[in-house]
Structures are given as structure tokens and as C-alpha cells.
Specification:
Largest sheet: 4 strands, antiparallel
Order of helices and strands: HHEEEEEHHEEEEEEEEEE
Mean pLDDT: 97
Bound molecules: 2-amino-4-trifluoromethylsulfanyl-butyric acid, cobalt (II) ion
Oligomer: single chain
CATH superfamily: Creatinase/methionine aminopeptidase superfamily
CATH topology: Creatine Amidinohydrolase
Length: 261
């Protein structure tokens, strides 16, 4: 036990890193596959069905969200003022909606976790600005990741960028270590002070997944026990990557196919 409590951060072996690469690539492939289906009139449960079929039937993998702590579907679909953990249902997307799809694939025992924002038709200028700011904030956080940096550097980079743009960072949910276990140490806060928190070491794998609200940061859990919404009903955006700390910096394990080299 140290000043950070009982935090035990696993260091992945070369073999485990290779399995994380594969799981991460598969999760990204699901988000690539679904992009063309996120259109006006599609029911969110149809998006869930397509992702489930692809993960199970094509990838021969396991959708980690399904039955996770009782979650009833294979992906989370969070539209507009839904912050995260939206449950796919019969409701149809409409022009102007902004939607986060969050998918986690288990392949060969390892998890890959990623989410992106999608526009349904043409978004408002504010929705576009929010989405872009959240995306850029995630990348500023990832940009801090290297051996010797601290998790507080990541959180600070995200929070300061978001707040400079007049938006707010959700505090109740954070990034997480990931591997054979879906959510493991460390907690990756999307706010904080530089130079604080645990020091990053090569072989660590974790997610960076800021949730950014157009209004105030506060959230409310709906009676379904899952759906998280902004308390002031303002729009919310989220992007998520799974990353690996390398000797030289960071490797993003969940890049879209067109961003890989
Ligand atoms: N994928 C989410 C995360 O980024 C967790 C979803 S859990 C679920 O950590 F049960 F809501 F699916
Ligand atoms: Co996720
Ligand atoms: Co995650």
C-alpha cells in the first residue's frame, strides 16, 4: 500500500501485448463496419444486432458488453444528451443526432475497447464543435502518454483543453486499465494536475475515453440503471481508444483501418 492506495497496475508481456493489438484492431473494425449504417431511420437495436453478428459470426469473438454486470446488449449507443451506456432499443435515429457507439471485443482472452462519435445527417454547429473538441481532447491526453509521464498529465491535458473551449468534463466515469480483465487498475481520470498520479511504465495498457458536456459536467442515472444523461440535458460527446505504453511513447491499439500504417 502506498500513497495511491492499493493500485496494482499489470505490465503486459510481449505475448500479451500482441494479443491486445489483435483485440484492439477487432474492436476498431466493428466501428469501421457500422459507420455506414448510422443513418436517419435506423433503430439503435438494429445497430446492436449488426455489431453482434459481426463480432460473433465474422470475428469469432465475444462482445464484452453483453451481460456485463447485467447490461442487456452488445454495444452502447448514446445519442445527444446521453453521456454513456445508452441501451440499444427500438427508437430510430433522426437527422441532426450525434451518437456515440462504444464496443468492446474479447479475442483470445483479451479486451479491446473503443468508441467514436457519428453524425446522423448534418449536425448543428454546436454539436460539431463539441464532438471535435472531445476528439482533440482525447488526442491531447494520449499525447501525454510515455514512460515517466504521470496519469495526472493525461487528465490535465484533457481537462484544460476542454475547459478552454467552454465545455465540461464528466467526473463520474473514467478510463481504465484493460487486458484479460475489462476494467482493471489504474483509473484514468480525465481531469487532474500535472505531475500527480501513478507513473507510466512500458507494457501498461489502458483506455482514454473523455466524456465532454456542452453544458455543466453533472450527470444523472436513469431508472433503467444504465443510461447516463447530462443533468441539464445539454449535448454530450465521447471518444475512446485503448493504448499501450511503449519504450518510446505510446501505441494506439484501436485505430480505424484507414489510420493504421
Ligand atoms: N465500454 C465502456 C467503457 O468504455 C463500458 C460499457 S459497460 C456496459 O468502459 F455494460 F455498459 F456495456
Ligand atoms: Co468503451
Ligand atoms: Co472503456
Amino acid at each position: 500500500m502506498d500513497s495511491l492506495g492499493s493500485m496494482q497496475v499489470a505490465i503486459k508481456s510481449q505475448d500479451e501485448q500482441e494479443k491486445m493489438r489483435l483485440a484492439g484492431r477487432m474492436a476498431a473494425d466493428v466501428l469501421d463496419m457500422i459507420a455506414g449504417h448510422v443513418v436517419p431511420g435506423v433503430a439503435t437495436e438494429e445497430l446492436d444486432r449488426l455489431c453482434h453478428e459481426y463480432i460473433v459470426g465474422t470475428q469469432r469473438s465475444v462482445p464484452a458488453n453483453l451481460n456485463y454486470r447485467g447490461f442487456p446488449k452488445s454495444i452502447c449507443v448514446s445519442a445527444n444528451h446521453v453521456v454513456c451506456h445508452g441501451i440499444p432499443n427500438e427508437k430510430r435515429l433522426k437527422p441532426g443526432d450525434i451518437v456515440n457507439i462504444d464496443v468492446t471485443v474479447i479475442h483470445d482472452g483479451f479486451h479491446g475497447d473503443t468508441s467514436r462519435m457519428y453524425f446522423v445527417g448534418k449536425p448543428s454547429v454546436q454539436a460539431q464543435r463539441l464532438t471535435t473538441t472531445c476528439f482533440e481532447a482525447m488526442w491531447r491526453g494520449i499525447g501525454q502518454v510515455r514512460p515517466g509521464a504521470r496519469l495526472g498529465d493525461v487528465g490535465h491535458a484533457i481537462q484544460s483543453f476542454v475547459e478552454e473551449h467552454g465545455f465540461s468534463v464528466v467526473r463520474e466515469y473514467c478510463g481504465h486499465g484493460i487486458g484479460r480483465v475489462y476494467h482493471e487498475d489504474p483509473q484514468v481520470l480525465h481531469y487532474g494536475e500535472p505531475g500527480t498520479g501513478i507513473e507510466l511504465v512500458p507494457g501498461m495498457t489502458f483506455t482514454v475515453e473523455p466524456m465532454v458536456n456542452a453544458g455543466k459536467r453533472h450527470v444523472r442515472l436513469l431508472p433503467d440503471g444504465w443510461t447516463v444523461v447530462t443533468r441539464d440535458h445539454s449535448l454530450s460527446a465521447q471518444w475512446e481508444h485503448t493504448v499501450l505504453v511503449t519504450e518510446s511513447g505510446v501505441e494506439v491499439l484501436t485505430l480505424a483501418a484507414h489510420d493504421r500504417r
